[in-house]
Specification:
The protein is mainly α. It has three domains: 58 residues, Terminase, small subunit, N-terminal DNA-binding domain, HTH motif (Arc Repressor Mutant, subunit A, Orthogonal Bundle), CATH 1.10.10; 34 residues; 35 residues, no CATH class. Helix content is 71%, strand content 0%. The longest helix is centred in the middle third of the chain and has 18 residues.
Length: 143
Amino acid sequence: MPELTAKQQRFLDEYGVDGNGTRAAVAAGYGRAGASVAAHRLLRNPKARAVIEARQGVDSQRLQISRQDVLTGLVEAFAMAKEKREPAAMVSAARELGRLMGFYEPQRHAVEVTAGADAEMGRYERMSDEELLRLVGSAAATS
């Protein structure tokens, strides 16, 4: 796998500022129109992920804060917001907890499709993910 380019390194430096991939891509010199796509691709690059994780580890040690400390603080913030009857703050704390715990990761669904002919299989291959999920959902609802 090739090393990261100077532009990709710049992206990682910018991403470390606030964790905003689109902003970091623009600041690193990627075009505004494709900045979010560039950020998505870079954040899925194994070498870039390794750099980000290493930097986060250094920050965690320097600040003497662990993932558990962050989660505990968010749970406490949620409880305080609930006690004060502040639904917006509760939602915000719950959203952060869910994000940190990986609840918003895309779910992958394995679907086995058996078709009698290549033409039928081609039809499934040309469908979008949304169309396939609707098809699977309607099949599940009728069974």
